[in-house]
Amino acid sequence: MTAAPDFVLHAGYSLRELDQADADELHALIERNRPRLARWMHWAQSQTAQDTVAFVRRAEQKAREGRGFHRCIVADGRIAGVVGFSTIDSLNRSAAIGYWLDEAHQRHGAMTAAVAALVDHAFDRFKLNRVEIRADVENASSCAIAERLGFQREGVARQAYRVAGERYSDDAVYSLLAADPARRALTSRAQRRDEAAEPTARR
Ligand SMILES: CC(C)(COP(=O)(O)OP(=O)(O)OC[C@H]1O[C@@H](n2cnc3c(N)ncnc32)[C@H](O)[C@@H]1OP(=O)(O)O)[C@@H](O)C(=O)NCCC(=O)NCCS
Question: Which domains does the chain have, with CATH numbers?
């Protein structure tokens, strides 16, 4: 049985845990979005159905060990995207968040709300001091999420990520620190979304 949503966003979007039963649906979504995902994320180029099963298994394992935290975005009971921290660096109290969305669900603010909710949660739950977002400088939609949420652009890590073949992306590095005013704004943003969407939202 799939997990119940534990973060309610707006416009019918919510977040819930991923589990093995999701692997087929998730893989079909990757297949449908493969070219646009592969433009920015190397794993999308060649991910097989077995790789998707392995990704879900790894995400579950890391969650159990407190080394990672993922959620899928759902709308009308179907998976619309994934957002999460692949690694939580507990020594440095730091983590980086990644995300992708089905093309049909773009432009509704779902990912901005999902990142706000998860980052807000992770600061508390994992006692983080820093959350990072890295995005290709040419990936305007991804950079816009970081900027909309008040992450500070620190600079550009040149050719930091091998996308496919011989293409390396220049990554804009954004961070949000626990002490930043925008971190507190995140809490009220996440709460406002929950209250607007459903007063009984579980956190
Ligand atoms: C990156 C990605 C998730 C961004 O998707 P997105 O739909 O632009 O992001 P959101 O869901 O937050 O929606 C924001 C858009 O909705 C609009 N919007 C509507 N209602 C909104 C609301 N309540 N709150 C915020 N934005 C809202 C915004 O204006 C924005 O549209 P615009 O770009 O035309 O200005 C998506 O493009 C994607 O999956 N890309 C491929 C994978 C990828 O690049 N991942 C990131 C790698 S670093």
Answer: 7-197 (3.40.630.30)
Tokens of 31: 């297949």
163 exposure class (CB count in 10 Å sphere: 0-12, 13-18, 19+)? middle
Assess contact for 5 and 16: CB atoms under 8 A.
yes
The DSSP H or E segment spanning 131 is strand 130-136
Flag the least confident range among 4-8, 51-55, 144-148.
Answer: 4-8
| Structure tokens given for 124 | 């508390």
Whether ligand 1 lies within 6 angstroms of the CB of 30 is answered as no
- The CA 65 to ligand 1 mean position distance, Å, reads 31
pLDDT for residue 24 is more than 80: yes
Ramachandran angles phi, psi of 43, nearest 5°: -60, -25
Q: What is the pLDDT of residues 121-149, one digit of tens each?
A: 999 999 999 999 999 999 999 999 999 99
- Amino acid letter, residue 75: A
Supply φ then ψ for residue 178, to 5 degrees.
-55, -35
Contact of 171 with 134, CB cutoff 8 Å: yes
Q: Is the CB of 86 under 6 A from ligand 1?
A: no
Q: Give the length of the chain.
A: 203
